Amino acid sequence: MKVKVLKGEELTSIGIGGKREVFFPKGVEELLKLNLKEFNFIGGGSNSVLRETGLPLISLREFNYIKYQGELLTLGGGVLLPTILKEQIKKEFSLFEFLAGVPRATVGGLIAQNAGAFGFEVKDFLKRVVFINGKGQLKEIKEFSSFKYRKSPFPEEGIVVEATFRIKREPKIKEKIRKFLRKRVEKQPPFYLRTAGSTFKNPKGESAGRLLDICGFKGFKLKSLKFSEKHANFLINTGKASFSEFTDIVEIAREKVKRELGVELSLEVKIL
């Protein structure tokens, strides 16, 4: 099993956090040799922020297999979103085009977050999820009513190691991916910037970005972190931001939105 010491800037798209020892099991057998209670898990780090110190990490990057069975697609928990989109273009099928432009996301992370955009959510396409629970047992679920807006039973119930999705043939998938990518670029900061995606969840019937904009947070900067001028719900790391800078700017925003608009914002970004 490979083990590396990596910095937060290497592990997350926003580039925040201290060094961590990261374990890379090659399969379920190696994964089960570890005491999972002594670790945190990290996917591609697209919607995560690391503390300066903390538990060692497990990455399922080696769980990167792809299997086809008719209109079903089975993916290892470590398969990256760009890899899936390339497969969609190559094989001409529809699945995650609505997430085009989200950097570094993995299958396990997308499921845990129940990622979504433009009216679609990951759970809409799920057929089966295989996971390892806290007791080190391999389990699966085939019913997804417990999945909600940006919420799933994971990682509380366990770690996703594999998932099967329903797919359908789509000859014009390349054009659809480009369309969603254009929509994302029009509304959000470019994906090459160091950001963790949406900072806060949208309150019911409302937009977190709009609320932050009303309260003057577009372009608001605190040391190395600032809210994007394009979309106020995106924090951008402009230098070498620390975890304490992240918590400071988040609390300033939450307190002002609560005080002025009476709305309590909840983090969408996951803190490890």
Q: Which helices and strands, and how do they pair?
A:
Elements: E1 2-6, H1 8-11, E2 20-24, H2 28-31, E3 40-42, E4 48-49, E5 57-59, E6 66-69, E7 72-76, H3 81-91, E8 93-94, H4 107-113, E9 116-117, E10 120-121, E11 126-132, E12 138-141, E13 159-166, E14 168-169, H5 173-187, E15 195-198, H6 208-214, E16 221-222, E17 225-227, E18 234-237, H7 243-261, E19 270-271
Parallel strand pairs: 2-5, 3-5, 4-19
Antiparallel strand pairs: 1-2, 6-7, 7-13, 8-14, 9-10, 11-12, 11-13, 15-18, 16-17, 17-18
What's this entry about, in short?
The chain has 272 residues and is an alpha+beta fold.
**Cα distance spanning the termini:** 22 Å
Portion in beta strands: 25-35%
Strand-and-helix sequence, N→C? EHEHEEEEEHEHEEEEEEHEHEEEHE
* Named CATH topology of the largest domain: Uridine Diphospho-n-acetylenolpyruvylglucosamine Reductase, domain 3
Annotation keywords:
25% strand; 272 residues; alpha+beta; Uridine Diphospho-n-acetylenolpyruvylglucosamine Reductase, domain 2; Uridine Diphospho-n-acetylenolpyruvylglucosamine Reductase, domain 3; 25% helix; five-stranded antiparallel sheet; Uridine Diphospho-n-acetylenolpyruvylglucosamine Reductase, domain 1
What does this entry look like structurally?
- The strands form 6 sheets. This protein has a 5-stranded antiparallel β-sheet with strand order 6-7-13-11-12, covered by helices on one side. The protein has a 4-stranded mixed β-sheet with strand order 1-2-5-3. The chain has a 4-stranded antiparallel β-sheet with strand order 15-18-17-16.
- By secondary structure, the chain is of the alpha+beta class.
- The chain folds into 3 domains: 58 residues, Uridine Diphospho-n-acetylenolpyruvylglucosamine Reductase, domain 2 (2-Layer Sandwich); 108 residues, Uridine Diphospho-n-acetylenolpyruvylglucosamine Reductase, domain 3 (2-Layer Sandwich); 83 residues, UDP-N-acetylenolpyruvoylglucosamine reductase, C-terminal domain (Uridine Diphospho-n-acetylenolpyruvylglucosamine Reductase, domain 1, Alpha-Beta Complex), CATH 3.90.78.
- Strand 17 and strand 18 form a beta hairpin.
- The model has no long low-confidence stretch (mean pLDDT 95).
- The two termini are 22 Å apart.
- It contains 7 helices and 19 strands.
